[in-house]
Fold this sequence. Notes:
alpha/beta, Glutaredoxin, 5-stranded mixed beta sheet, 5 helices, globular
Amino acid sequence: MKKFLILLSLIFLPLTGACTPSLDSTDDDDTAVVEEDYPWATWETCAQNIGDHPCDFTLVDQYSNEVSLYDYYGSVIVLDLSTMWCGPCQQAAAEVQSVQDNYSNEIVYLTVLIENLDRDDPTHDDLVQWADIFGISAPVLGGSRDLIDTTGVTGWPLTSWPTFFFITDEMVIHTALRGFSSAYVDMLIEETIEEGQE
Length: 198
């Protein structure tokens, strides 16, 4: 009966705005596999505020690969929401690769570009250009203003550029940073790594 209820909840979970990406039907037969491989399948809600499990998204990166936030479950994630026209975003971009290299096995650094220089949705060429100019091999993803919601319920609560979200290895938003400070980024990465070790 328990397996049936979990299976039933997994079928209806995507309809309720849950955190989970779609699960393969081959995983439905074994509850332990679902809970072990997809722990977020049991989370009832998602949102983008501190302490929440963030909602998943899938975007295309500079290599034309689809990248989902939940691909990195189990790693600390630095999520950098930037625009191409923003000066502090450009300063942050100049340090992305060194931050990724310094914490190579401890974090994943994801840049999501929300707007290009014309304040439009970034194109694939924009992503490639951003990665090339700043020497970034970490994923640079093409987003849009559809990802933003100042309440944090249906999107990321942005009030300034860039905005960073630091997400624990258990996929919980630990903290955020509005604006750019190299020292604060490093400090908050360390804090988020420690949070996951407790």
